[in-house]
Design a protein that fits this description.
By secondary structure, the protein is an alpha/beta fold. The chain is 44% helix and 18% strand. The protein has 2 domains: 4-224 and 399-412, Aldehyde Dehydrogenase, Chain A, domain 1; 231-374, Aldehyde Dehydrogenase, Chain A, domain 2 (3-Layer(aba) Sandwich), CATH 3.40.309. The chain has 15 helices and 16 strands. The chain has a 7-stranded parallel β-sheet with strand order 10-9-11-8-7-12-13, sandwiched between helices.
């Protein structure tokens, strides 16, 4: 009997072979595949919703959090967004084979860099079945094969989506093994996948801290990752307070379970008396629990006392930490100490303050007068994302098509030799 380790290795071997075919595929072939996936997906709503309902029923019986249930749900809107994302990625320029600036050396030799696929990408994710479509689409368009392993809570949804992808790939004449799914809920499969350095070129994990920390300990394959999204909005002394109110509400309540949700609100002390009661009351009316510093609680007595853990927490829930700070420097120091380097925003009408915040806040995405919930590859015009990276090397922020490529040097000459 084949062992689980042998099964996962065989999947990796098949992915390596399939990567050669997708690497050579033309942009027309890859775009046709994505359009075909969108077409099949549009015709398969009933099947996909039925599969998703099985996962939702099991998740509810396990008392999973509302944030996880939100991530797990395949709604008509989310299915429509998947289809739109596929078509948007299909229409994007193919990054593969593009050349950077050419340098002509004194001997006439021409030197440039060419963008090429990474190869085989392993994607490990929890809860969100939409990742199955996003990951497959981005990998196909960027000329990579992928091995997917979703969470057990989304097993039926993911299997149904992979069936859609396989049907479309076959229809356009591309190998179905360009996108493969590890069809087991056994956690040991992940452990095998992240050590397969001959078959897998990079791992992209999308999940909670527990998953990422476990993979950091086990992985031998390089990873593109982020641990959590402890995102901040800082309301400056020069902020338009009505605009700041709408930005803060959207940043927190658009969706509680996304990594771009605001978890801490920082308010300049000079506008705190006006802004803190206004925003805290508005958010409380929307069901958000406020945990605040002493100054916040003096301005909004219903707030609970914030602890050091609250400043560090990624709630993924209707809970918000609020702190009044002396000035912008104090706000940036708070973000530097407690933030996760994911996404942070300033609300201000002061161009100098905005410039300083953009330059000095060391996060993968920094916003001016925008809510942090825009942290999404689709919103960045990337078509979709395979994850949001807080790494400093290779890719940072939402990882789209270019983030799934690397460069090689290409040189041309007319027979020059080195003296």
């Amino acid at each position: 009997m084949t062992t689980l380790q042998e099964t996962v290795k065989a999947i990796g071997t098949r992915a390596r072979l399939a990567s050669k075919a997708i690497m050579r595929a033309t942009d027309q072939q890859k775009s046709a595949a994505l359009t075909a996936i969108a077409d099949v997906l549009d015709r398969s709503h009933d099947v996909l919703v039925a599969a998703n309902e099985k996962d939702l029923a099991q998740a509810k019986s396990r008392d999973l959090s509302s944030a996880l249930l939100d991530r797990l749900t395949l709604s008509p809107k989310s299915l429509l967004l998947m289809s739109q994302s596929l078509r948007q990625i299909a229409a994007m320029p193919d990054p593969i084979g593009s050349l950077g600036a050419t340098i002509v050396r004194p001997n006439g030799m021409r030197v440039a860099q060419m963008r090429v696929p990474l190869g085989v990408i392993g994607i490990i994710y929890e809860s969100r079945p939409n990742v199955t479509i996003d990951a497959a689409a981005l990998c196909i368009k960027s000329g990579n094969a992928c091995v997917l392993r979703g969470g057990s809570e989304a097993f039926h949804s993911n299997m149904a989506l992979v069936a859609v992808i396989s049907q479309a790939l076959k229809a356009v004449g591309l190998p179905q093994r360009v996108v493969q799914y590890i069809e087991t809920t056994d956690r040991d499969a992940v452990g095998y996948l992240v050590t397969m350095t001959e078959e897998i070129d990079v791992i992209v994990p999308r999940g909670g801290k527990g998953l990422i920390k476990r993979l950091q300990e086990q992985a031998r394959v390089p990873m593109i990752k982020h641990l959590d999204g402890n995102c901040h909005v800082y309301v400056d002394k020069a902020a338009n307070l009505e605009s700041a109110k709408q930005i803060a509400i959207n940043a927190k309540t658009y969706r509680y379970g996304i990594c771009g949700a605001m978890e801490t609100l920082l308010v300049h002390q000079s506008v705190a008396a006006d802004f803190v009661p206004m925003i805290c009351e508005a958010l409380s009316d929307l069901g958000v629990e406020i945990r605040g510093c002493a100054k916040t609680r003096s301005l909004f007595p219903d707030a609970k006392e914030a602890t050091a853990q609250d400043w560090a927490e990624e709630y993924l829930a209707p809970i918000l930490a609020v702190r009044v700070v002396d000035d912008q420097i104090a706000a940036m120091e708070h973000i530097a100490k407690w933030g996760s380097g994911h996404t942070d925003a300033i609300v201000t009408q002061d161009i100098s303050a905005a410039d300083t915040f953009e330059r000095d806040v060391d996060s993968s995405s920094v916003y001016v007068n925008l809510p942090t919930c825009f942290a999404d590859g689709f919103e960045y015009g990337l078509g979709a994302e395979i994850g949001i990276s807080t790494n400093r090397l290779h890719a940072r922020g939402p990882v789209g098509l270019e983030g799934l490529t690397t460069m090689k040097w290409v040189l041309r000459g007319e027979g020059q030799t080195r003296g």
